[in-house]
Design brief:
It contains seven helices and nine strands. It is α/β, with parallel strands linked by helices and 265 residues long. Helix 1 packs across helix 6 and helix 2 packs across helix 6.
Length: 265
């Protein structure tokens, strides 16, 4: 079999070992007589898949107990709307724009409140990360938003911004599970899995529990975009992307077997 070298940012290469395991289980997952693609998301077999995947991710990242792990749909781009819809209680948020994805998130947030661009590197085609040590953070800002790694431009934060006590929200799609991370430095950390972890269609959102509002900050937020809807249902409010979660779970186990995020770094 000829396997190409794939340097795409995403969908990107998956471990061959994982693909072979999935191929072996394609028609019959562990004696269930069906593929994971065919089984109910309410079944005992899938319940074990998603719970094991979550625990392995918690082990890999050292995710504290007071953070929820949500396996969602819509990719990272859907969180561009979900973040302000859930968090913009004061109607203000600060954005650091260092690439196309941060720019899109900033533009989306403008639909739901006052999104403030407190720093940007657009003046030099996003070729650098601006100084974030003393930003003009708004007193009323509900959060500070970054895209931590920018594949198009090859830039990455070496040091997280000084948010002056405000909640940090980070899109980490491009560097997800590539290095150890201190989750406690973030209020929300999320990423589409297709660059490093699994097939397109899954976004994993890790959210500190006190930031999940009883009611979204923005009126008329769709039920599916309310984090509490998903958190209360353990990511099973509707049929989740079951097969994608299953592949992610296998990659988590592979990462642990390889030595974890320190080895990936």
């Amino acid at each position: 079999m000829h396997r190409v070298y794939n340097f795409s940012a995403g969908p990107a290469v998956l471990p061959e070992e994982v693909l072979r395991e999935a191929a072996d289980e394609m028609l019959d997952y562990q004696g269930t007589g069906m593929s994971v693609m065919e089984m109910s998301h309410r079944s005992a077999a899938f319940d074990e898949i998603i719970k094991t995947a979550e625990q392995d991710l918690r082990d890999l990242m050292g995710i504290p107990d007071n953070y929820k792990v949500l396996f969602l749909q819509g990719g990272a781009s859907q969180q561009f709307a979900a973040v302000p819809m859930n968090l913009m209680k004061n109607g203000v948020a600060d954005y650091i724009v260092t690439g196309q994805w941060a720019k899109k998130a900033y533009q989306e947030a403008q639909k739901y409140g006052k999104a403030v661009k407190v720093a940007s590197s657009e003046d030099e085609t996003f070729s650098y990360i601006p100084d974030c040590s003393d930003l003009p953070i708004d007193d009323d800002a509900d959060y500070v938003y970054i895209c931590e790694n920018n594949t198009i431009y090859g830039t990455k934060y070496k040091k997280l911004p000084n948010t002056k006590g405000k909640t940090l929200v980070a899109d980490v799609s491009s560097c997800f599970l590539s290095e150890p991370v201190d989750v406690t430095k973030y209020g929300v950390i999320y990423g589409g899995v297709q660059k490093n972890v699994g097939p397109a269609g899954v976004v994993i959102a890790i959210i500190r529990e006190d930031l999940i509002p009883e009611k979204p900050a923005v009126e008329n937020t769709p039920t599916m975009l309310a984090w509490k809807t998903q958190a209360d249902a353990d990511s099973l409010y509707n049929t989740p992307p079951c097969y994608g979660i299953y592949i992610c779970g296998k990659v988590f186990k592979w990462l642990k077997k390889m030595g974890g995020l320190e080895e990936m770094q």
